[in-house]
Amino acid sequence: MKSTITIPNLLSLFRICLIPFIVWVYFDPSIENNLVIVAGLVILSGLTDVLDGFIARKFNMISEVGKVLDPIADKLTQATVVFCLATAHTALIPLIILIVVKEILMLIGALLVMRDKNVETPYARWWGKLATVMLYALMIIVIIGDYIGHMPSIVITFISSVAIAFVFFSFLSYLTIYFKKEK
């Protein structure tokens, strides 16, 4: 129990708890400056993601629960926010599809690797973190662009394409790990 209830795991749970508030504020135009608040919540989520990783490594609070909970918090936040944004920007739909397909396949791959009791829980690598940073940047740019005024579709398509490239590279990189562990 001691290794389960850690500050990093509580921060991951906090990020998961932020998700309904992000959705509510995003879709409620009666809330004054709702997009500014959403941007703040997304930034807060991103900062707590960085903070929980730092604390886990710095103070040796890495746990098996955290190795699972942290990426779940990331993926739920990313998918939810990108889905919200895609309701106004259809250029983001391919990114949502890629995220969903990638995460389903990653889950299957992780389960296959973890069925061997001698294999450690897969953990985040630099390319996954880079894809996460790109997704957070995309989310913030689109939210701020929507707040300032209508962002041209070509800009959103370009930013989305860059994010897709990073997410796809991350996915391929993780696949090579899974295939190596399966041999």
Walk me through the structure:
With 183 residues, this protein is mainly alpha-helical. The protein has one domain (7-182): Up-down Bundle (Four Helix Bundle (Hemerythrin (Met), subunit A)), CATH 1.20.120. Helix content is 79%, strand content 0%. Helix 4 runs parallel beside helix 6. The mean pLDDT is 88.
The structure class reads mainly alpha
The level-1 CATH class = Mainly Alpha
Distance between the amino and carboxyl termini: 34 Å
Gyration radius, to the nearest Å? 17 Å
How would you sum up the major sheet?
none
Shape: globular
Q: How many beta-strand segments?
A: 0
- CATH-derived topology: Four Helix Bundle (Hemerythrin (Met), subunit A)
- Residue fraction in strands: under 5%
What's the helix-strand series?
HHHHHH
Q: How many structural domains?
A: 1
List the helices and strands and how they pair.
Elements: H1 7-27, H2 34-58, H3 64-86, H4 93-114, H5 126-148, H6 153-182
Quick recap:
With 183 residues, this protein is mostly helical. The protein has helices at residues 7-27, 34-58, 64-86, 93-114, 126-148, 153-182.
Offer a few descriptive terms.
single chain, 183 residues, mainly alpha, Four Helix Bundle (Hemerythrin (Met), subunit A), 79% helix, globular
